[in-house]
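Hi there, hope your week has been kind to you so far. Do you reckon you could talk me through the fold, stretch by stretch? Thanks so much in advance, here it is.
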Amino acid sequence: MDSGKKPRLIHLVIALESVVLLAFLLMLTPIGSRLTLSGNMESAENGETEDGEAESGGTPNGEAEKQEKTDGGNAKGAESAADNADNQSDSGKEDYIKWVDFDIPAEALKKAFRCDIDTYLADIHLNWIEILAYLGARYGGDFSHYQESDLNAVSERLLAGEKMADIAADMEYYPYYLEAYTAVLGGMVGEYQVEIPGSQAPDFALPKDEKGNPVPTEDNVWVTKYGLKAFSPIAKNYPYTDYDDFGDSREYGFHRVHLGHDLMGQVGTPVIAVESGRVEAMGWNRYGGWRLGIRSLDGRRYYYYAHLRKNYPYHKALQEGSIVQAGDVIGYLGRTGYSSTENTNNIEAPHLHFGIQLIFDESQKDSGHEIWIDCHELIKFLSINRAETVKDEFTKEYYRVYQMKDPAIPGGAAEQRMPEHADTPS
């Protein structure tokens, strides 16, 4: 070998070793570990399912049917926070978020939410999503490091007059976490009108006599509130059990990953619209059985409810394109699915499969790049607001007890009020 080439060869070897070492060190960081997980998931997934479960090994018999795709977007094709923070791609096309890891614990959600509503009428109103985004940037998205003292500290700085833009100015990934967490939580807190029992109504909401004095009433009265206007997907007073099963394996048809959250309950339990939105999908698929897909009004969230009850899966008022309000009864828990034959009970244990897909660009909606989040902790948070329902003994249909007016719905939505019947069944 030419002696002049030897130094260049040595330099090349050293450079390659340096690259390998840097790659190894990157894998030890939070972002690197997520990229490793994402790459493994992507290489294992060759198709999509209709039940919030990502396939690995491909669909049997080469099936290419259009499905309610939930193929693991939050772990697949993951982009680092640095990539997501870019405003423009190399091609000049507008960029958008392609990966979200949502692991905020319920206690942090509740604490931030309480900071928001407690300061709503104060001179300085704290924004719960901004607080959570700050913590996300501080922890690198890993809330296993969460401490309430960190949340209290940033809240105190804000209440002292500092601006979040200044506090987070040196946090490179704060804009990413703000956009990502807004996509998850953006429609859940705000002003709305709701009925409450007259016995619980403040004096200003009660009817008045001729002298302007409040008159007690047994009827429901309307009040305007600011707070949580999203609901648990399981109606009030109905038992259920759950655990964090996001990412568990599923075997029906082929091996795949569960990208939703199962709430185990009783057949016939009323299923509730978590957020106001439009019915986008309705009908049967072989994984989810009778299922519903409801898109939030801002277009960012797709709520997926599956394994609904045999013979009577949906509230009779629903059809594709219907507008529903948060808290409406939309269907009934069951055990349908795992069959190509409609109306088949093949799920062993009755439960509601609930999933949330995030959509930053319409190309993500039905593609190989969907983003499904772990919503176990979010469901724990939403359990503080469960809709009360009543059964119409004449039709056996369920209705919400207290009506709501969500200003997010243009022109309002039809009330889901139980009809009055001239006769009752004997």
